[in-house]
Amino acid sequence: MLSAMFSAIALRRRGQEDLPRLADLWVASWREAMPEIDFSARRPWFCDHLLQLEAAGAVTICGVDGSNRAKGFVTVDPATGYLDQIAVAPEAKGSGVAALLLDEARRLSPNGLELDVNQENARALRFYEREGFKKIAEGANSRSGLKTWRLRWPKDA
User: Fold this and answer.
1) CA-wise closest residue to 106 among 94, 119, 115, 116
2) Measured between alpha carbons, how far is 65 from 53 in angstroms, rounded to an integer?
3) Cβ-count burial of 89 within 10 angstroms (0-12 exposed, 13-18 middle, 19+ buried)?
4) What's the alpha-carbon Rg for the chain, to the nearest Å?
5) Sorting pLDDT into bands at 50, 70 and 90, what band is 37?
6) pTM of the model as a whole
7) What is the mean predicted confidence (pLDDT) over 8-16?
């Protein structure tokens, strides 16, 4: 099942028509990960944030199924290697979509990646550790105040 689902995902750059669907996916993914936070209320922030990131040079890659339904996306700045967003639709979690998106982020930023992850997001932490990321600093999310880890994946780690 994993390989069938994984091979059915195509990667492409985000088009303007994708923004509402990616916002819905982002809300659903975060609602599942951290149900105590109202991510629906943060939807407008997300849309503005994504557009600002892309205007500054970041790239958003969508993982879509055969019906062009978004199953996940990643936003990374190839110049800095900062991975700002990665989200997978709840029904696609565990399918390999996150790994496929992360591999694309690595391809776009071959000199390494950095990201921040909520310390309470155990599933994400396990995923990044399996993928070779290392903790390099502790911080806090400026919007929620939650503690975060800064993670790094060097190319030759």
Assistant:
1) 115
2) 25
3) buried
4) 15
5) confident
6) 0.90
7) 94
Task: Compute CA 137 distance to the chain's CA centroid, rounded to the nearest angstrom.
Answer: 19
133, 119 Cβ separation under 8 angstroms: no
pLDDT at 5 over 80: no
The mean pLDDT of 1-26, rounded to a whole number, is: 81
Q: How far apart are CA 1 and CA 60, in angstroms?
A: 27
Phi-psi region of 116 (alpha: psi -120 to 50; beta: other; left: phi over 0): beta
State the CATH architecture for 2-110.
3-Layer(aba) Sandwich (3.40)
Checking if the pLDDT of 4 tops 50, the result is no
Residues in Cβ contact with 42 at an 8 Å cutoff, skipping those fewer than 6 apart: 27, 143
How many C-beta neighbours within 10 Å does residue 87 have?
Answer: 24
